[in-house]
Specification:
The protein is built from three helices and eleven strands, in the order ααββββββββαβββ. The chain is α+β, with helices and mostly antiparallel strands and 199 residues long. The longest helix is centred in the N-terminal third of the chain and has 21 residues.
């Protein structure tokens, strides 16, 4: 059978479609699943933390810090991040068809959404059972431009989890680094529900 240029093109397009299909339907990595399960194992518990790196100190992160792992399912984990009396922030980690997604939910005291809410990113590499990275996604970049914080377009967020030792939340971009470490060796009293959360 004679192979024509047209046949080669059709075969190439078919192969390309298969590769695209595989990339879209790729499952989360084993490391991502382990990370998610290790975080879920902390559900119902709260831990104290402190800022360990901040090259642009802000009064917004000067109070007592707590993380409360709550509202856990096989697909999503919500972690309120409490700073002093401010209960506006919740980290949402979601298991997707191809990895993990991190979102930052921000609420006002009356429970309504802040204009800057649900920004974050999706994993682009397999990561490790102890560490996952989330570069800013398109929704977040558009939001940062809209809210006149274009410097945040280059944000990446990192979560580190060493069971029975520590959990860390870290933000990096050019010229900016912020990190909070939580002590997992000692549970603390549960905080009040975050603003807008169910009791």
């Amino acid at each position: 059978m004679q192979i024509t240029k047209k046949t080669l093109l059709i075969n190439a397009l078919s192969l390309s479609s298969c590769l695209i299909s595989l990339s879209v339907s790729a499952a989360p990595s084993q490391a991502q699943l382990q990370f998610f399960d290790q975080l879920k194992a902390l559900c119902g518990k709260a831990f104290a933390g402190k800022t360990t790196v901040d090259n642009q100190p802000s009064p917004a992160f000067s109070g007592e810090m707590l993380m409360h792992v709550r509202d856990c399912s096989d697909r999503q984990i919500q972690v309120p991040f409490v700073v002093g009396e401010n209960r506006s922030r919740t980290w949402i980690i979601t298991k997707t068809d191809s990895g993990l997604k991190l979102q930052h939910q921000h609420k006002h005291q009356d429970g309504t959404d802040d204009i800057s809410t649900l920004y974050g990113g999706h994993t682009t590499t397999a990561g490790w059972a102890q560490a996952q990275t989330f570069p800013a996604d398109d929704y977040s970049k558009d939001l940062f431009i809209k809210t006149k914080t274009p410097q945040s377009v280059g944000n990446s967020w990192h979560l580190y989890l060493y069971p029975n030792e520590s959990f860390s939340y870290r933000l990096t971009r050019e010229g900016r680094e912020f990190r909070v470490d939580f002590d997992l060796t000692k549970e603390v009293a549960l905080p009040k529900p975050n603003w807008g959360a169910a009791k």
